[in-house]
Design brief:
33% of the residues lie in helices and 19% in strands. The protein is of the alpha+beta class and 257 residues long. It holds the Pfam family Lipoprotein_21.
Length: 257
């Protein structure tokens, strides 16, 4: 007898059985901790606007517990399902990370950012771009609403988006836009400079690193100079450390030295 994957395999029944058993274990776990359960037979999976704010909190907590138990049991499908519903009921990635003892960035990397959240991020960046003045000396230039690179995160103390102009090249004016908890603060520097890099790999939850290159001759050769500045909050105030190019200023951040 040969067995292999086939359409008639009872996968649906298996998934449903696992889901029901997971729910039973979640309820037992929450009861043992005296955590309120959804009342009146209400379950995750219903549209959040069907519930009062208090009801959504109960469902959020239920889904967080379901997510944690699914992760612990290595039930990846059910973990992703629980994460999506927890997000619908208002859970942050920070809360999801706390539920499994990991940073929120790990949760975001493993289970991904939902499409609706990415669309919201791009809309927030586009709204910030719409407030920018044209680069100095280029009154007819239009900024592109879509970032070249970004780590926009409404839960981060500081995140950023690198934007450029329509038809731009590497030496065209760029701006690094800064956001705090998803709210736009302003461009990192008052001047729009070419050869600007957002150093995403060096940037952290509370710090954004930017590199400014002064090109040599030719421009594709070794740089004449490189400057790196780090922006972050200190005692509730936005400051920058490192080096900005000569005559480059920042109206939104003070020098931190």
């Amino acid at each position: 007898m040969e067995l292999g994957f086939e359409d008639r395999m009872p996968l649906g029944d298996l998934m449903q059985g696992v889901s029901e058993e997971l729910d039973r274990q979640v309820e037992a776990w929450l009861r043992s901790k005296n955590v309120e359960l959804p009342s009146g037979g209400a379950k995750y999976g219903q549209a959040p606007w069907h519930f009062t704010p208090a009801g959504r909190v109960v469902l959020k907590n239920y889904c967080l517990a379901r997510f944690a138990l699914a992760v612990a049991g290595k039930l990846d499908y059910h973990a992703g399902e629980s994460l999506n519903w927890a997000r619908e009921y208002g859970a942050t990635y920070t809360e999801l990370g706390q539920a499994i003892g990991l940073p929120r960035q790990t949760v975001q990397r493993k289970w991904g950012i939902r499409l609706v959240e990415r669309e919201a991020a791009l809309n927030a960046i586009a709204a910030a771009v719409a407030t920018l003045d044209p680069p100095a000396g280029l009154p007819d230039v239009v900024w592109l609403p879509t970032p070249m690179e970004d780590n926009y995160d409404p839960e981060a103390e500081l995140s950023a988006a690198l934007v450029s102009i329509e038809g731009g090249t590497g030496g065209s004016p760029n701006q690094v836009l800064l956001f705090r908890k998803g709210e736009y603060i302003g461009p990192a520097t008052d001047q729009a400079l070419g050869y600007t890099r957002f150093l995403q790999a060096m940037s952290k939850d509370k710090m954004v690193a930017i590199e400014f290159k002064i090109p040599g001759s030719p421009a594709v050769g070794p740089p004449k100079a490189l400057y790196t500045a780090r922006f972050g909050y200190r005692n509730g105030e936005l400051v920058w450390f490192g080096e900005l190019p000569p005559n480059v200023t920042s109206s939104i951040a003070k020098r931190g030295y």
